[in-house]
Specification:
single chain, 115 residues, mainly alpha
Length: 115
């Protein structure tokens, strides 16, 4: 494997960690609240590492572009909706924020299907 391929795989893993961490950080903040438990960083970063590793080894059933699009579009849509509905701070509106996250990601998945 060439050095360029290795760097590409590292980039895919790092990108997936960052992209998956965006919505997970919002969900964890809504559930846990302002306290920062020791395990929060692990909960936010570990799923992205798993997704990135699967994408880098071609074991992911969807394209990496779809992961990128759904995570980014879902996060932007959910943050915009949370701001529009004035659900800040998110830990005071846990149920509403989680419903907004699920709906935003459903819209992002449908939009990715048409993309």
């Amino acid at each position: 494997m060439s050095l360029a391929d290795q760097f590409e795989r590292v980039g895919v893993v790092v990108g997936a960690v960052l992209l998956v961490a965006l919505p997970l950080s919002l969900a964890v903040d809504a559930v846990v609240g302002p306290a920062t438990p020791w395990w929060q960083l692990l909960v936010v970063l570990a799923p992205g590492f798993v997704v990135g590793w699967a994408a880098a080894t071609d074991d992911l059933p969807v394209a990496y572009g779809s992961v990128w699009f759904v995570c980014f579009a879902g996060y932007v849509l959910s943050v915009a909706t949370i701001s529009l509905l004035e659900l800040v701070p998110v830990y005071e509106h846990t149920t509403s924020v989680l419903v907004v996250l699920v709906a935003s990601f459903a819209v992002a998945v449908v939009a990715d299907g048409y993309r």
